[in-house]
Design a protein that fits this description.
Low-confidence stretches: 482-488
Number of strands: 21
Strand content: 15-25%
Mean pLDDT: 96
Distance between the termini: 31 Å
Largest sheet: 8 strands, antiparallel
Number of domains: 3
Helix content: 25-40%
Number of helices: 14
Oligomer: single chain
Length: 488
């Protein structure tokens, strides 16, 4: 294929000249493809959702099979090269790409096989959430996945995973039955609760540290084909009334009801009245997946607030509910978040976020609260590395702005200031998939809490050379001084 020699970053922070013959030999050993910068697929492979993150690999490999993945891992291990693994590239920290390293782009592993009688789905590591929802909804089945269609299933799952169904069925990894994974030694392993149990424990919440998963098997639940939900919003001057109803509603909500709260500036969307665009509103994202006949009763406390700016709550296909927020997070925009898990909602917390948002005139800034309480709280803290079984809500100060926005530098400042005021109400931890690149090692340790030392021992067993480091890295002892060179 006419490959040239490449200068590729190594894991020790140096560079290595890899001859064209070695690269061509790798191409000959795999069924997938090695991409050159001149090929049209290159741009797609190196695109990250968060436009704030600008990184480019030296080489892209698109494997066509698990065997291909093992060949690539052997290739980088033997040469000490820097590796990154991309499922969907939707991570806020942009960890899917390591600068000037070898990128393993799993987009070719995008098959979904549903086994409806067993209520299981086998999902390739290149799948997006929409791929899985479409396939499982053909049988009125679903598992716990996120709420933006283009999010990669692999990254979502390996960090724990949450979505509208988390209240009913727990973290995404609470619904994971098995994985096929290629570990740092190039071996292909099946990990579940019977085989390689220790590895399976770590994969459920910190899996990006332990290998390249090529297949996930998820437990499915009877959901759909329709569900009730959508967006509803009120003027910001009613914010305390709306927050109080939100707290009361979530405290009593059946697990089939997930309600998320957002303080934001009304976007220029077709459903927003023209005279409200740009004005502050308080909105709820509602999803009810129980019996259709009970949907109106479940939403009644919310609708009793009356006089909304808009009300889009209705019965609709479950796949539409899973994708109706897609337009709120377009690829390429700059995104910056800071989040915390919460044990509950206090008046003091409400006072804090209301005052912070009332003073904010940045149109792309918002504060969101996601209700999680339910099934995930009923498992032991050490049921998977994910932990955080005391999380009832997650709160985030968020900002989204165009790359050429002249106020761009103001958004991260506002987010950090708001986050600093919110942190005293936290459990002390947050969701690993919501962590930004500027959050240090102590934040990772805090996230895993009492599970961290066990996780560290697993990392040192399965990946002592820290080949899988382009992530929120659990760094083995021998590599801690240089971890930053390959981490995002």
């Amino acid at each position: 294929m006419g490959m040239q020699a490449l200068r590729i970053s190594t894991r020790d922070g140096e560079f290595r000249e890899v001859p064209a013959t070695e690269i061509e030999r790798l191409q000959g050993r795999i069924a997938g493809r090695l991409l050159r910068r001149t090929e049209p697929e290159w741009a797609e492979s190196v695109r990250l959702w968060n436009g704030m993150v600008r990184k480019e690999p030296a080489l892209v490999v698109r494997p066509g099979s698990t065997r291909d993945v093992a060949e690539v891992i052997d290739f980088v291990r033997e040469r000490g090269l820097l590796l990154s693994v991309k499922g969907g590239g939707h991570n806020i920290a942009g960890t899917a790409i390591a600068e000037n390293g070898v990128l393993l782009d799993l987009i070719g592993l995008r098959e979904v096989r549903v086994r409806p009688a067993a209520r299981l789905a086998d999902v390739g590591a290149g799948c997006r959430i929409a791929d899985v929802d479409r396939a499982t909804q053909e049988h009125s089945l679903a598992t716990v996945l996120g709420f933006i269609s283009e999010t990669g299933v692999a990254g979502l799952t390996l960090g724990g995973g949450l979505g509208y169904l988390a209240r009913r069925f727990g973290w995404t990894v609470d619904n994971l039955e098995e994985v096929e994974i290629v570990t740092a030694d190039g071996r292909v392993r099946l990990a579940n609760r019977r085989e390689h149990e220790d590895l399976f424990w770590g994969i459920r919440g910190a899996g990006a540290n332990l290998g390249a998963v090529t297949r996930f098997t998820f437990r499915l639940h009877r959901v759909g084909p329709t569900a009730f939900g959508g967006l509803i919003a009120w003027p910001f001057d009613r914010v305390r009334e709306v927050l109080d109803v939100y707290r009361e509603t979530t405290a009593r909500a059946p697990r089939e009801l997930a309600v998320w709260m957002v303080l934001l500036h009304a976007p220029p969307a077709p459903f927003v009245p023209a005279d409200w665009v740009g004005k502050k509103i308080c909105a709820m994202a509602v999803t009810y997946t129980g019996e259709p006949a009970r949907a109106d009763a479940a939403a009644a406390p919310i609708r009793r607030l009356g006089d909304p700016v808009f009300d889009l709550l209705r019965e609709q296909p479950y796949t539409e509910l899973q994708s109706y927020l897609d337009g709120t997070e377009p690829a390429g925009m700059h995104n910056y978040w800071k989040t915390e898990f919460l044990p509950g909602l206090s008046d003091q917390l409400f006072d804090t976020i209301v005052s912070e948002f009332a003073a904010c005139e940045l149109e792309g800034a918002e504060v969101g609260i996601l209700h999680l309480e339910g099934a995930l709280n009923e498992r032991p803290e050490d049921d998977g590395a994910v932990g955080n079984r005391n999380a009832r809500y997650v709160i985030g100060a968020k900002a989204l702005w165009a790359p050429d926005d002249p106020a761009g530098s103001e958004y991260p400042v506002w987010v950090r200031n708001c986050w600093t005021r919110v942190r005293p109400f936290s459990t002390g931890r947050t969701y690993i998939n919501f962590q930004t690149a500027d959050e240090g090692d102590e934040r990772i340790r805090a996230t895993y809490g009492s599970n961290f030392e066990r996780l560290l021992a697993l990392k040192e067993k399965y990946d002592p050379d820290n080949i899988f480091r382009s992530n929120r890295n659990v760094t083995p002892a021998l590599h801690r001084p240089i971890a930053a060179s390959g981490s995002s």
